[in-house]
Specification:
The protein has 293 residues and is α/β, with parallel strands linked by helices. The chain folds into two domains: 158 residues, NAD(P)-binding Rossmann-like Domain (Rossmann fold, 3-Layer(aba) Sandwich), CATH 3.40.50.720; 121 residues, Orthogonal Bundle (N-(1-d-carboxylethyl)-l-norvaline Dehydrogenase, domain 2), CATH 1.10.1040. Helix content is 52%, strand content 13%. Strands 3-2-1-4-5-6 form a six-stranded parallel sheet, sandwiched between helices. A three-stranded mixed sheet has the order 7-8-9. Helix 7 links the parallel strand 8 and strand 9. It is elongated, with a radius of gyration of 20 Å. It binds nicotinamide-adenine-dinucleotide (NAD). Nicotinamide-adenine-dinucleotide binds next to helix 3, strand 7 and helix 6.
């Protein structure tokens, strides 16, 4: 199959490589950055030219305005789309704007799935991403063989566009609040004089055990804040969650607090640090700097 793949960054590059390794032809267009090493793809001048030659177009772009530009802007996907083409947006973007994008693609004779992922760069490289899709069952069934080349836990969350993005934002709320809880416990226990590694080890055997305590708790102890998942991206996702919640009349008090702590981190120059660096904002609130940076 000829697959258009636009957005060959941290996540998109390894995902496209899995599709190419399975024998699919990859068409792409670039935005300043060169073609990633090891990816065999045909580079076309714009997204419209990519869509004109592809049966399926996958997007893995940073944010909502990027998807807007690549889909609906001049030389965008919709301008070159052939009827029957499936557009799959795997970026994490606004569930509300997703519905507008889906309508535009459908009006041009195409089909649309939103299918954001979790699992990070490690999951992208290992083809073990969790994929959360929103859209028609028939479109999901059509995309499934491609999803299986990139991920493992693959769910059609709802037969409406935006459902996948909503699920992804729910994921980001849970991850942020878990990181915040682990960071609070770490500052509390350390200032009380406990050894943080022993505290983590004890808690991993009990009801407070979690993947976040295991992975991010370890990063907070070793003070290794190389991303991972950047504070900047998590801020974007929490902003999407908060604005979607506002439009639904849903209060997310602790998500709002976590977002403010991320903003504090960004103000300290940590926007490109791993999100476990959230602990630095809590240390600031208690005027208690843990050793090791
Ligand atoms: P990234 O910034 O590394 O990659 C984005 C790519 O899109 C870049 O290569 C950029 O050049 C390209 N791009 C931007 N505008 C373009 C255009 N007009 N035409 C062609 N290419 C264009 O970002 P990423 O980390 O790969 O994340 C992509 C998406 O996946 C984001 O929405 C992010 O929130 C989500 N995500 C990221 C992770 C992670 O761990 N990094 C995990 C899960 C989900």
């Amino acid at each position: 199959m000829q697959i258009g793949f636009i957005g060959l960054g941290v996540m998109g590059a390894p995902m496209a490589m899995h599709l190419a390794a399975a024998g699919h032809g990859i068409l792409t267009t670039l935005n300043r950055s060169p073609l990633p090493d090891g990816l065999v793809a045909e580079v076309r001048p714009d997204a419209a030219a990519v869509a004109a030659g592809a049966e399926t177009v996958i997007l893995m772009l940073p944010d909502t305005p990027d998807v807007d530009r690549v889909l609906l802007g001049p030389g965008g996907v919709v301008a070159g789309l052939r009827p029957g083409t499936l557009v799959i947006d795997m970026s994490t973007i606004s569930p509300i704007e997703t519905r507008r994008f889906a309508q535009a693609v459908q009006a041009a004779g195409g089909s649309y799935l939103d299918a954001p992922v979790s699992g990070g760069q490690v999951g992208a490289r290992a083809a073990s991403l969790t994929i959360m899709a929103g859209g028609a069952q028939a479109d999901f069934d059509r995309a499934l063989p491609l999803f299986r080349l990139m991920g493992k836990n693959i769910t059609l969350v709802g037969e409406v566009n935006g459902a996948g993005q909503t699920c992804k934002l729910a994921n980001q709320i849970i991850v942020a609040l878990n990181i915040e809880a682990v960071a609070e416990a770490r500052v509390f226990a350390s200032k009380a004089g406990c050894d943080p590694a022993r505290v983590r080890s004890a808690l991993m055997g009990g009801f407070a055990a979690s993947r976040i305590l295991e992975v991010h708790g370890e990063r907070m102890i070793s003070r290794s804040f190389d991303p991972g998942f950047r504070i900047r991206l998590h801020q974007k996702d929490l902003a999407l969650a908060l604005s979607s919640a506002r439009s639904l009349g849903v209060a997310l008090p602790n998500t709002a607090t976590a977002q403010e702590l991320m903003t504090s981190c960004a103000a300290q120059g940590l926007a490109d640090a791993d999100h476990s660096a959230l602990i630095r904002a809590l240390e600031g609130l208690s005027a208690y700097a843990l050793s090791g940076g």
